[in-house]
Design a protein that fits this description.
Two copies of one chain form a homodimer. Chain A has about 210 residues and is α/β, with parallel strands linked by helices. Chain A has one domain: Cobalamin biosynthesis CobH/CbiC, precorrin-8X methylmutase (Rossmann fold). Chain A is about 40% helix and about 10% strand. In chain A, strand 5, helix 8 and strand 6 form a beta-alpha-beta unit. The two termini of chain A are about 35 Å apart. Chains A and B meet through helix 1, helix 2, helix 4, helix 7 and helix 8 of A and helix 1, helix 2, helix 4, helix 7 and helix 8 of B. Chains A, B: It comes from Salipiger aestuarii.
């Protein structure tokens, strides 16, 4: 007997988001941030993630406005840039990951750092007003914060800080939350990653559910 | 003051995996499956994931042997195919995602199903002996199980079944575990996703940590 299952994509999204809104405690998120939180929980498959989410005041509104103005999305990993649903973007925004640029290996060696961190040096020409999405490497988020200590460095409009893991993830996100060089959202602690980050971008890009 | 942090990629992996092995209960995994479990925990940033992992007997060994023979990796999502570290693959294996094939939209309409499920119809010529990795769509996993109910359908060597979410994820993985049409691993319940799935592929591809 073949398996029978829900095959209507729109119905799957509707049921999923209804389940999340029934089970998760979303009361502390404002109307701009709530749909972002819902999609992040959806991507993680984990009610309870909301307890680790932090949005700085105005994050959702600022990030949406940046994309509406045509801001590029700067991503630390190809799994992030690849996951963004292009048809949700409001202004055919560029979605950029510089990790495979031929210059990165030399930049990493010269800077004594990871390729993920070094790749951010190539963001500088597009960084002003951008939506930054760091969903993989703690070293990339630390490197961004160090770049932004220089007042001459262009400022992004907003920062999604969701690197994942056991070395530097918690620390880099705590540093972003303490510094707040731009409106930001983080997943506190070890949790994070490309899927959750992509979900945040897709939710910022469009309110369609 | 710039932030000071671990910048040596190899050291970051070493410390991460040591932390996971110190904190997670991995005793029930055999020597082939344990490094796969460790990488899946690493990608999720979540000690405790191991309680949801199930490997059928011989999964790790069978999947490794398939890749060594040159088997392709068939992925349900571009976030999965994009995340596979090509230099870890033992035989320059093809990593394939058919989701953007121009035929998929018509197949989905014709079959009354999602694009993610319909895309699997294009796997048939490469399915025999392949490593299948479903890291996003429950509908894709259900569709695979229905395809494999036909004895004439080519058989994959092994199946990573890690779709994520709130509608069909738990159910499709339970169905895979009950059917076991090939050696398989699953994340029970709602958890799963592309990052965890990629981690499993990367661990199968090479024992290097």
């Amino acid at each position: 007997m073949p398996y029978d299952y829900e095959k209507d994509g729109a119905a799957i999204y509707r049921q999923s988001f209804a389940t999340i809104r029934a089970e998760a405690d979303l009361a502390r998120f404002d109307a701009n941030d709530e749909p972002i939180a819902v999609r992040m929980i959806h991507a993680a498959g984990m009610v309870g993630l909301e307890r680790h989410l932090r949005f700085s005041p105005g994050f959702g509104a600022t990030a949406r406005a940046a994309l509406a103005r045509g801001a590029p999305v700067l991503c630390d990993a190809h799994m992030v840039s690849e996951g963004v649903t292009r048809r949700r973007l409001p202004a055919r925004n560029d979605v950029i990951c510089t990790l495979r640029d031929p210059a990165v290996a030399d930049l990493a060696r010269g800077g004594g750092t990871t390729r993920s961190a070094a790749a951010l040096e190539l963001w500088r020409p597009r960084l002003a007003g951008a939506l930054v999405a760091i969903g993989n490497a703690p070293t990339a988020l630390f490197h961004l914060l160090n770049m932004l200590e220089d007042p001459a460095c262009p400022r992004p409009a907003a920062i999604i800080g969701c690197p994942v893991g056991f070395v530097g993830a918690m620390e880099s996100k705590a540093a972003l939350w303490a510094d707040q060089p731009a409106p930001c959202c983080i997943v506190e602690g070890r949790l994070g990653g490309s899927a959750i980050t992509v979900a945040a971008i897709n939710a910022i890009a469009s309110r369609a559910e």
